[in-house]
Amino acid sequence: MSALPECETLKLETEKGLLHVTLNRPDSRNAMSLAMVHELREVFAAIRDETEPRAVVLRGTGGHFCAGGDVKDMASARSQKVEDGEDPIFELNRAFGRLLTEVESAPQTTVAVLEGAVMGGGFGLACVTDVALCMEDAKFGLPETTLGITPAQIAPFVVRRIGLTRARRLALTGHRFGGSEAFWLGVVHDFAKSGEELETKVAKTLERVRHCAPRASRMTKELLLSVETEPLESLLDRAAADFAGAVRGDEGQEGTMAFMQKRKPSWAEE
């Protein structure tokens, strides 16, 4: 793994092919400041072309995931003048959208561990991860319209996650809900009633990630994310070429041999 950037708003920890990224602004319930956006983008840029880590775990400190955008940053941007056609508010908002795109398209498997506040920008960040697990008493919502603003960068990712009809209700009523409803809506994939149960579910998820071949997982994620944007015939042609390469590749040969020999493949032995 290449060197990770120095961060002030994040805690970074690596172990066994994993990168743990913890949002670390507990005094503001890990509100998403512009500095945090930049640091998260730097972290994902640093690992994009790396084979390690195989998975990224996103969570927050102080009992919360993320309470949304930082109001102080928005107030600061509002007080700045628009110069040469560049609007500070536009740039602040658009930077967060770029972060969401980069996290969603990261080749690593991303796992969100959600506690406490999962609001606004935190909700959007959860919606671009591959696997999301939460506490039953976590608090989710899109409160933007109740504040006189719009969920501008978040909305497309929420729609893709849970569908247009459900997203319309959440965004246009400011409805707030807990972990069990988040599971029912499809925001998260599972929820837990206690911290111990949540950690057990996280550990089991990461164990399953380790059982999947790293290169095959990256190719599969790219394939899945291309379904909505690439014409079907060209997508299937590319998928067939990738499949042929995988079967002939080291992982395909090792996986087949391990299955026949009734043992774990090499990538699952860490």
Automatic annotation (TrEMBL):
UniProt xrefs under Gene3D superfamilies: 2-enoyl-CoA Hydratase, Chain A, domain 1, Lyase 2-enoyl-coa Hydratase, Chain A, domain 2
Top-level taxon of the source organism: Bacteria
Biological process annotations from GO: isoprenoid catabolic process
Pfam family, one: ECH_1
Annotated signal sequence range: none
GO function terms (MF aspect): catalytic activity
Protein family according to the UniProt entry: Belongs to the enoyl-CoA hydratase/isomerase family.
Classification via PANTHER family: ENOYL-COA HYDRATASE, POLYKETIDE BIOSYNTHESIS ENOYL-COA HYDRATASE PKSH-RELATED
Name the record gives this protein: Isohexenylglutaconyl-CoA hydratase
